[in-house]
Design a protein that fits this description.
With about 240 residues, the chain is an alpha+beta fold. It folds into 2 domains: about 100 residues, Beta Polymerase, domain 2; about 130 residues. The chain is built from 9 helices and 4 strands. Strands 3-2-1-4 form a 4-stranded mixed sheet. Helix 3 crosses helix 4, helix 6 packs across helix 7 and helix 6 crosses helix 8. The longest helix has 26 residues. It starts with a helix and ends with a helix. About 0% of the residues have low confidence.
């Protein structure tokens, strides 16, 4: 992975020269113990002095090359956009502040201000939006055990992230470790961590679907408790906005 990232930085430097301000790796890949190549992308922030069609054209060959690694296209921002972007993408920049690796240039994230009000609203919005999508997709594949199971496995780390942000919103110093987050969420938010932990077990191959007994891994049955806990998480975050917590 590091060799690939080094190549990305070198290509960006050749493409943009002195206009390149910063290249930052963020997300699970910046914490190798959490990174799962089978599920996780390489998330990269690329900051330029300015971002015009000229810079976009210069980036095109780099992005074509990068797509060959089946990773997300780097997030490109002009340096002047960062303060405003922190209001709209509070979750992303809050995550970057907790786990990032500066691959090139300045650390433009460390001192960014995250407005608490915008932060709470985005956490609630993302939770509700992902819950709606999860329900829609589950309805389309409900009778297919394999597809439903994959859907749940693909979603669980996102909801672990939101559980951590729900804790952070309450001033609780939530760790990055997913299982530690789940233990805290159960203790502080009243969320049953069991369905999340089961999905993490399967993802991490500690409980393999093909070898599990029928009682261990039934996606359709797990879905009910999983959805209830996500709904509880939304309730907690919503109440924060109403001053009820």
């Amino acid at each position: 992975m590091q060799k690939t990232l080094d190549q990305l930085v070198e290509r960006l430097r050749r493409a943009h020269g002195d206009d390149l301000v910063s290249v930052i790796l963020y997300g699970s890949a910046a914490t190798p113990a959490e990174h799962d190549p089978g599920y996780s992308d390489l998330n990269v922030l690329c900051v330029l002095k300015e971002l015009t069609p000229k810079q976009l054209a210069q980036a095109q060959p780099v992005f074509h090359w990068w797509r060959g690694y089946e990773s997300l296209t780097p997030l490109m921002l002009a340096e002047s956009e960062l303060p405003g972007a922190a209001d709209c993408f509070a979750i992303e920049f809050r995550d970057m502040q907790q786990r990032r690796q500066v691959l090139f240039g300045k650390d433009v994230v460390a001192d960014m201000h995250i407005d608490p009000a915008f932060y709470r609203v985005q956490v609630e919005y993302e939770l509700r939006a992902k819950l709606l999508r999860l329900r829609q997709k589950a309805a389309a594949v409900f009778s297919d055990r394999k597809l439903l199971g994959r859907l749940l496995l693909d979603s669980v780390t996102s909801f672990c992230v939101f559980a951590r942000h729900a804790l952070l919103l309450q001033g609780i110093d939530a760790p990055l470790d997913r299982r530690a987050v789940l233990r805290l969420a159960q203790e502080k938010l009243g969320i049953d961590a069991a369905p999340f932990a089961t999905l993490l077990d399967v993802r991490e191959k500690k409980a393999r679907e093909k070898k599990a007994s029928p009682g261990q891994w039934k996606p359709a049955e797990l879905l009910a408790t999983y959805l209830r806990q996500i709904e509880r998480m939304i309730e907690v975050v919503d109440n924060l906005g109403k001053g009820n917590l």
